[in-house]
Task: inverse folding
């Protein structure tokens, strides 16, 4: 008996759009039915799928089970809204929007149309994060007190030449890169309630920041710090430490350091550091590396999307969950501008 595959469409055939297409092609229960972009180029000509210049035109001609939005950040809201109005489940690449009030509008429209929204924070689908959460929830670290987040890399000039939108506000390292790290902190530790941040304008003269740092307070009392930049030569970023994508040269460094009363954890190398006796700093401290079985988080995400479409699973990353991170980013930007501590509303 032939099993019907889930018909998926990808809107926006840039770097992430192509990654989603590759992930679809690696799944057994989905197929790429259509792609949408504002222009047709040589890359799109090589994709084995029907092409359309707009979401509206696609829905006129195709029966689609689910749509993936991978357009520039500032377009996510309008593109997501268009899909929702066609009553089709949608996976919106992060950030879901660049304003929390726009996300609220998407949520309200989705409720009216009874449509599921998923958000492309694919790192939650990485087995290393699931294992890390298991260890934390099982109290191997004791009470977590501190977190240090590093999200530092050097993006070459041609990265910005490929797409002009990457130079605009809403496309700096906070929205493009750090947003993943903030989402994982929400996943591991819950709600962030206070932010004090400082940022600097892009050295390249773009309309966004190229360096930012902050102190974050979680509802459960954890204090976290982060440093992010896309203009420094650094081994300390998820891309260079997680081995998710082989286009990035891997380092042996960590991007997250999590401090607990019993032990501390470094990620994504999944090492637990403990003193040999009673946590005393005079006694030797050594690490244990925990094993896990890797699988591609982007493929895992597509498989999850298909199960949500089939009503076999509920969304792991809802619009409401994703909007918590957008609100933290807004607080970071407001604090940087005002030079004041910002408290987030419950």
Result:
């Amino acid at each position: 008996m032939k099993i019907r595959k889930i018909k998926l469409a990808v809107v926006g055939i840039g770097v992430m759009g192509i990654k989603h297409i590759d992930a679809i092609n690696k799944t057994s229960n989905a197929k790429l039915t259509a792609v949408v972009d504002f222009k047709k180029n040589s890359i799109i000509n090589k994709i084995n799928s029907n092409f359309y210049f707009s979401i509206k035109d696609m829905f006129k001609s195709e029966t689609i089970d689910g749509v993936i939005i991978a357009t520039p950040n500032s377009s996510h809201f309008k593109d997501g809204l268009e899909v929702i109005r066609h009553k089709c489940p949608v996976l919106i690449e992060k950030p879901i929007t660049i304003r929390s009030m726009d996300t609220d509008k998407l949520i309200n429209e989705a409720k009216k149309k009874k449509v599921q929204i998923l958000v492309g924070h694919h790192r939650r689908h990485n087995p290393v994060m699931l294992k890390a959460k298991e260890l934390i929830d099982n109290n191997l670290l004791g009470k977590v007190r501190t977190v240090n987040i590093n999200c530092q890399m050097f993006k070459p000039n041609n990265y910005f030449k490929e797409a002009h939108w990457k130079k605009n506000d809403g496309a700096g390292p906070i929205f493009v890169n750090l947003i993943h790290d903030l989402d994982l902190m929400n996943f591991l530790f819950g709600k962030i309630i206070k932010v004090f941040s400082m940022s600097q304008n892009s050295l390249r003269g773009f309309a966004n920041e190229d360096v930012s740092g902050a102190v974050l307070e979680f509802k459960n009392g954890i204090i976290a710090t982060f440093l992010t930049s896309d203009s420094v030569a650094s081994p300390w970023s998820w891309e260079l430490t997680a081995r998710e994508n082989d286009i990035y040269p891997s380092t042996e460094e960590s991007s997250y350091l999590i401090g607990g009363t019993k032990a501390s954890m470094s990620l994504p190398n999944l090492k637990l550091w403990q003193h040999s006796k009673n946590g005393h700093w005079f006694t030797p401290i050594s690490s244990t590396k925990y094993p896990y079985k890797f699988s591609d988080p982007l493929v895992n995400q597509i498989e999850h999307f298909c199960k949500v479409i089939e009503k076999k699973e509920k969304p792991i990353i809802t619009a409401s969950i994703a909007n918590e991170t957008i609100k933290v980013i807004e607080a970071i930007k407001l604090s940087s501008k005002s030079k004041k501590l910002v408290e987030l509303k419950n």
Remarks:
- The CA atoms of residues 206 and 272 lie 40 Å apart.
- The chain has a mean pLDDT of 94.
- Residues 319-338 form the longest helix (20 residues).
